[in-house]
Amino acid sequence: MPSPMDIYKLLPKTNCKLCGEQTCMSFAFKLIRKEKKLEDCKPLFSPEFEEQRKKIEEMLKVVEKATETGLVVNEDLCIGCGNCVVVCPVHVYEDPEGAGSGFGVRLDNPILRVENGVVRVVDVGLCRRYKEKTICVACRENCPTSAIAFLEEL
Amino acid sequence: MWVCTGCSCLCDDVEIEGNNVKHACRIGAGIILNRSVARAEPLIEGRKTDMDSAIEKAVEILKDSKGVAIYGLNNSTLEAQRIAIKLAKKLSAYVDNGSKFEKLAEMILNKEIPSTTLENVKDYAYVIFYWGCDVHNSMPRHMSRYTYYPRGKKRQRGYEEDRFLVVVDVRRSHTAMLAKKNAVFIKTDDDRKLVREFVTALEGGIASGDVLRVVKELKKSDFNVIFGGEGLIKGLGNEFEEFVKLVNSVGYFIPADYRTNSMGFFKSIFEAGISKANFEDLLIDETIDTAIIVGDDPLNSMPFEIAKRLVKLKLIVIDPKVSFTSKIADVVIPSAISGVECGGKMLRSDFVEVELKPVFKSEWDDVEILKSILEGL
Amino acid sequence: MLRFAKFLKKVELRLITYRDGFQVSVARKDKFSDEFIEKSAVIIVHPDTAKTFGFKDGQIVKVSANERSANLRLKVSEIAPEDGALMPKSIYSCYLFSDKITIEPTDGEITTPNELLEVYT
Q: Quick one: which of A26, A79, B71, B252 has the fewest CB in 10 Å?
């Protein structure tokens, strides 16, 4: 997952304000949070920045994968322990006999499910962050290998 | 539902749909998904042969041997372990599974230390110790499936209110990183001293802040449990008296031995009335000239100075996969992956018996191979 | 910086091994694969240790013990003890098994399991 600093280093760093932001750093922040688009930075699309632009586009692919709730899963870091599946308050409520009791989640469309040894986002529609706009971080908090992240915390 | 043989959790809730393995961790899912990769072939002195010739050669080696050890068997079923024991008796051979949990397993089976089941832990346990074990890595679903995270009968309010986690280790392991709210991580290089401190504190004596905090929590419930790993055993230096005292006042002890059927091995040898040898000592003392390695890879687990002595032995390796030890073996006999290609029973880390549910069928498994060797003798 | 690091004398640390779930998974898949090397030929030091001695995450280091040595990838993580180095249990950690190991920067390539096996035989 790229940090705003990683992105900033590749931007023109002129604080030209053409994107509507006061500084390139603030643009980098909003880019990661998906509040701005790369196209908003006009100078970056000139030939002299082509190489840097491509690098940023590569970095942003991870951000693109982030779900509507800002949840990002990095499968390479996931050991498949299922802590996130079991602690999810929605899973506990909707599937008390399955995920709530430590078993594999029994919902057809859970938020998260461990598949082929790594956690996969199945349906964020049920997530409290999506429906109720609650800031819940139970899944991320109980992942010691940082396989789960939320965009706004980066 | 498939029973996973990735570690001694033996998770029985895994679903397999085509190439999709649901709920198993990275280690467990990999067993199914990668089962056809790096498979062993029958070999005699590195040259390809057929199963019958490989078994015949193994029998020939064993007939000429003056001292034999059978090593491994943690990935074998109870049925295979029992045949291996018969073979050991016939050959007057030593047996070792490489686990250091022998004394604790014996105490549990003799009821000299109170133990319980993982289901009871889920339903009733309040304070949960992980002492000298990084279960997040060695048994990835241990905490989510059975201990800290799931809700149980008397533990309906979840980990944040109904459990208290204690992690003891020499370093801040991934398991230790999970000790957040209602939890404490105690870093120690001296396990014996910490055990004594807990015993003293439980008797009302003086102890450090962290220990006193845990003792206060322990008194809230009469069902608390200690999961001890290799780090604990090493730290105690095989002296368990004080530790047993501690377990008696805490509640229960369950081994955190990740080796899949290690407890099965211990139960099998104790029932057969034989004791566990120490393979490393046999190599150092040059007591043996032949070893049968079943489903294990000592070159990947034993210190160089000891492991290099394996080269001098006649080695018979029985394994589903190519291993480092198979590269130096005189005979390699390919076997089935227990629980995937052959059935049988295993014991979970809490000694609960679990019936395996293989999804493929194999002609040769540990049972058939060991039986054939036994008959050949 | 690299040039400076090269002049650092050998760093002696105690060695602790652990069972790494990612390593176990690839070891059970194929011990003669690049993945196995990636997950096994690894030595982890604490961020404080890395800072003190100028080690960088990802650099290749020569690790020595008992007159044997292997080139491993150095990683920086808080899971390592402050006063020691951590290695996932594998043929590499067995090969270097010792209470004390030394680490020094190197330009060499990472050692392969086949190179280690040659020493055994």
A: A26
Name the residue among A78, A115, A142 with its Cβ closest to that of B178. A142
**pLDDT tens, B242-266?**
999 999 999 999 999 999 999 999 9
CATH class of C2-120: mainly beta
Question: Cα dist. B127→B91, B120, B131, B190 in Å?
Answer: 47, 13, 12, 21
Do residues B333 and B316 make contact, with C-beta atoms less than 8 angstroms apart?
Answer: yes
The candidate with the shortest Cα–Cα distance to B58, out of B275, B371, B274, is B371
- Residue A86 in contact with partner chain B when CB distance is under 8 A: yes
The full DSSP string for A62-75 is HHHHS-TT-EEE-G
pLDDT in the model for residue B238: 82
Grouping H, G, I as helix, E, B as strand and the rest as coil, residue A33 is coil
Those residues whose C-beta lies under 8 Å from the C-beta of residue A123, and which sit 6 or more positions away, are A109, A110, A111
CB atoms within 10 A of CB C7: 7
Judged by a CB distance cut-off of 8 A, whether residue C66 touches chain B is yes
The 8-class DSSP code of residue A38 comes to G
CATH 1.10.15.40 fits A4-65, yes or no: yes
For chain C, what's the residue count? 121
CA–CA separation, B320 and A102 (whole Å): 31
Q: Write out pLDDT tens, residues C57-111.
A: 999 999 999 999 999 999 999 999 999 999 999 999 999 999 999 999 999 999 9
Longest Cα separation, chain A? 59
CB B4 within 8 A of CB B354: no
Of B333, B320, B301, which Cα lies nearest the Cα of B37? Answer: B320
Which residue(s) pair with C31 in the sheet? none
**DSSP character string of B247-268:** HHHHEEEEE---STTHHHHHHH
Could you identify the residue written with the tokens 């059927």? B261
**Domain coordinates in residue numbering, chain A:** 4-65, 71-153
- Does the predicted TM-score (pTM) go above 0.80? yes
Neighbours of B375 (CB within 10 A): 9
The pair of three-digit structure tokens given for residue B198, joined into one six-digit string = 């807990």
Q: Please indicate whether, in this complex, the C-beta atoms of B145 and A102 are within 8 angstroms of each other.
A: yes
Residues of chain B neighbouring C19 (CB-CB closer than 8 A): 134, 137-138, 258
ipTM score of the complex?
Answer: 0.95
User: Is CATH 3.30.70.20 the right assignment for the domain spanning A71-153?
Assistant: yes
- Is A117 within 8 Å of C25 when comparing Cβ atoms? yes
In chain B, what are the domains?
Answer: 39-99+261-376 (3.40.50.740), 102-255 (3.40.228.10)
List chain C domain ranges.
Answer: 2-120
